[in-house]
Amino acid sequence: MPIEVKEETLNSIFEYRFEAPEDLSRPHVFTLPAWFQTWWKVFGEDYEPCPYSVWQNGQMIGIAPLMRRGPTARLIGNPEVCDYLDFITVPGREKEFLQALFPALQKRGFKQLELNAQRPDAAVFCWLSGAEADSDYPGRIYFSREDQSYELALPDSWESYLAGLSKKQRHEVRRKLRRLEKENTGYRYRIIAGNRAVQEFLPRFFDLVQYNPDKVEFFTDKTKYFFRCLVDNMAGSGLARFGLLEIDGRAAAAVFYFDYRGRIHLYNSGYDTNYRSLSVGLLSKVLLLKNGIEQSRQVFDFLKGQEIYKGRLGGTAVPIYRVKVEIDP
Q1: Are 297 and 154 in contact (CB under 8 A)?
Q2: Which residues make Cβ contacts (< 8 Å) with residue 38, sequence separation at least 6?
Q3: What integer pLDDT is reported at residue 190 of this predicted model?
Q4: What distance lies between CA 316 and its chain's CA centroid?
Q5: What are the chain's domains?
Q6: Are the C-beta atoms of residues 328 and 139 closer than 8 Å to each other?
Q7: Taking residues 64-86, what's their average pLDDT?
Q8: How far apart are CA 129 and CA 120, in angstroms?
Q9: Is the CB of residue 14 less than 8 Å from the CB of residue 33?
């Protein structure tokens, strides 16, 4: 059956949230329409939208949420706030999807496709796994290591998780939790979910972030606005949440995360440095991980960044790549 490529608009790809087939894979929150919509609202002023969809026999097999600047096409988003970027395809149809897409890009005058924040399981790598051997690619292809993330397959119990850590790290986690329990009988860890509750806590989260000098540069007014828009668009559906560690009724540390299809995405965090001696920054993540196990989540995704604690808590490194395709005329 012939494959058809359609030019889309931002509104139409946002609407595919409701119309796209169930087997169209959205592997992480960064490929959801609400995420595209939020990113574009805050950061999209320097780009022209140029999304496409690919169909066969009346069935959608993929969406290319692309934007352009000059002759270069990129996926909507940027690696500073989008840990992973990808095309949205029916699993197993990546090669057909990209083979159809490249001629459409060439026809529109694109010279290159730049893809940041690509996981090893991204659509472009599914296509590359056999494309070069078949001489079935549009031009020169370059890729380089861009960053690294960590993820952990969650076991069915907290004790099984602890047993999977090294002896030293298992001891450290238990020791830190015991110290928190011993020195602060008033500590509590809770999940903040629901649109109103998440919106009300967001200013307090910004306050916690300000305690951490390494994050002040990242949390500009524009980034804060992006977070507010994310909460507006994603908290109501239960995707955007906070994990809050309180000591004697005060917010000591919090994590901002997304709960999506059995996968916890640990997006950002902050803590009150007055409680640093109690390791509240680390424990806010440990307790979120424990909550994820109790709620039968399958994966804990620490997301990008090479912080040492991620490996110590059991995360396995996942390389993140930048891919550049020069499209032959």
Answers
A1: yes
A2: 226, 229, 230, 233, 234
A3: 97
A4: 16
A5: 3-147+320-327 (3.40.630), 155-297 (3.40.630.30)
A6: yes
A7: 96
A8: 11
A9: yes
Give the pairing type, strands 299-304 and 139-153: antiparallel
CA distance 14 to 228: 19
- In the block, tokens 């609400």 appear at 34
C-alpha–C-alpha distance, residues 250 and 253, integer Å? 9
Residues 141-178 pLDDT 10s? 898 999 999 999 999 999 999 999 999 999 999 999 99
Contact 230, 38 (CB under 8 A): yes
d(CA 200, CA 208) in angstroms, rounded, equals 14
Contact 71, 110 (CB under 8 A): yes
Rounded-to-10 torsion of CA 181, 185, 191, 196? -160
Mean pLDDT lowest among 109-118, 182-191, 258-267? 182-191
Q: Are 198 and 240 in contact (CB under 8 A)?
A: yes
CA angle at residue 140 from 135 to 144, to 5 degrees?
A: 115
Phi and psi angles of residue 315, each rounded to the nearest 5 degrees, phi first: -70, 145
For the record, the structure tokens of 275 come out as: 């409680």
